[in-house]
Every structure is written in structure tokens, then in C-alpha cells.
Amino acid sequence: MAGKSARLREHLLALLRDGLAPHDRLPPERSLAEEFGLSRLTVRRVLDELEQEGLVYRVRGSGTFAGEPRIAKSVELTSFTEDMRARGLRPGSSPVTRELVPAGADVGYALRLSPSEEVLRLTRVRTADGEPMCLERTHLPAALVPGGLDLDGSLYEELARRYDIVPRRAEQTINATVLGPDDAEALQVAAFSPAFLVRRTAYDDRGRPVERAESLYRGDRYAYHLTIYRT
């Protein structure tokens, strides 16, 4: 099933890239389900992912449409610790929650694992000069970190030191959002405060996905700075 849904995703991405103009309608869910031998629920899940990435949008009763292209800028792949040090801030974190859990559909897809395979999930509040800045949830393939991680500082430094795993590139999306009550409490701000939701899948030199991270950054304290060039 994962292979079929991946083929559907690649098919839709090709349509959006080469076949459809902004606001053109995508094929109906029913025809996509029949063409790829998938359930309507699975088709809807793939479309949900594309919608979350800003590639498509839905109109109730009318269907799914190609979105306007977003401007994407490359940024350097750094850990939170490296990022805060570069800004002249002292990085830190609250106690880390570590647990082995099934990958599930979304994380499994990102890490090329079956939903039942185990991943190490790390949850921690990252701080800058002692103030909560980011709520970070990271998933790592359990097979790549068999001894676990004693993590107080940089995840990337620990992966390199203990397992010789060095992330070299990443696919990352950044969306505006608001914080639910629990996440807001963890970051010590009011519920429904603005935030950045950053989703990242990092790959090593061999092209293996080694990390799936989802981070919530406080909108009142964090900003992205990009240097761009005109060609």
C-alpha cells in the first residue's frame, strides 16, 4: 500500500509541476483511487499531505485545485544548538522524553519504514538563554541508534559522535500556525499564540532518511533570516 500511495504522490507532483496551471482542478478522488488501486481514504491522505505543503487547496463541493507556487529559499542545515549559538544565544533544553514507538503512517513514509517498525521519539522544549523557544519532536529509525541517545545538547553532534551519522541535506517546510493549549503551556505563552511549524526530513551521505522532525517555534521570538541572490 505504501508503494502505491508513493506512486500516487509522485504522479500528482508531476501533474502539478508539468501539467497543471495554478487553480486547475486535479482529477477527482474516485478516479485516482480506481487508477492506482487505492481506497478513497488513502487518496485523501495523500491529498491532505499536499495541502499541508501548500501545493494544492480544496473547495468544498468542487474538488482539489493546484495552488499558487510558493517561493522556496535554501537555508543551511543546522541543529537548534548550532542555530542558537550562531545567534549569540545559549542553547539548552528541558528533560528529554525518550520512547520507542511504532513509526505510524506519516513518520514511516518519511523515513521509508513500515508503520509497524520502531522509531526512537525524542520530545523536548528547547531554550535560548533559559527561555522556551521551541517544542521539538524528533523521530529516528530505531535500527540506526540501537543504544539510544543520552541527549542534552545537539542531536546532530551526538549522532555523529556515537553512530557516525551525519545529516547532509534535508527537505523542510515552514508554515504559520497557532499553538494549542498544551503546546502553548510547554512554551510558556498564551494559547493560540502564533508559531512557526517546521517539518524536516534529513538524509545522510547515502541518501538514507535519518531524522523526521516536527518543531514548533514561538512566533514572537523566532524569525528566519535568508540571504538570496538574483541571477
TrEMBL record:
A molecular-function term among this protein's GO annotations: DNA binding
InterPro entries listed in its UniProt record: Bact_HTH_transcr_reg (IPR050679), Chorismate_lyase_/UTRA_dom_sf (IPR028978), Tscrpt_reg_HTH_GntR (IPR000524), UTRA (IPR011663), WH-like_DNA-bd_sf (IPR036388), WH_DNA-bd_sf (IPR036390)
Residue ranges of every copy of the HTH gntR-type domain listed in the record: 2-69
Keyword Metal-binding: no
Keyword presence, Transferase: no
UniProt xrefs under PROSITE patterns: HTH_GNTR
Pfam families, A to Z: GntR, UTRA
Keywords linked to the UniProt accession: DNA-binding, Transcription, Transcription regulation
GO biological process: negative regulation of DNA-templated transcription
Regions that span the bilayer: none
Cited Gene3D superfamilies: Chorismate lyase-like, Winged helix-like DNA-binding domain superfamily/Winged helix DNA-binding domain
Lineage: superkingdom: Bacteria
The protein's name in its UniProt record: Transcriptional regulator, GntR family
Source species: Nonomuraea pusilla
Lineage, opening ranks: Bacteria, Bacillati, Actinomycetota, Actinomycetes, Streptosporangiales
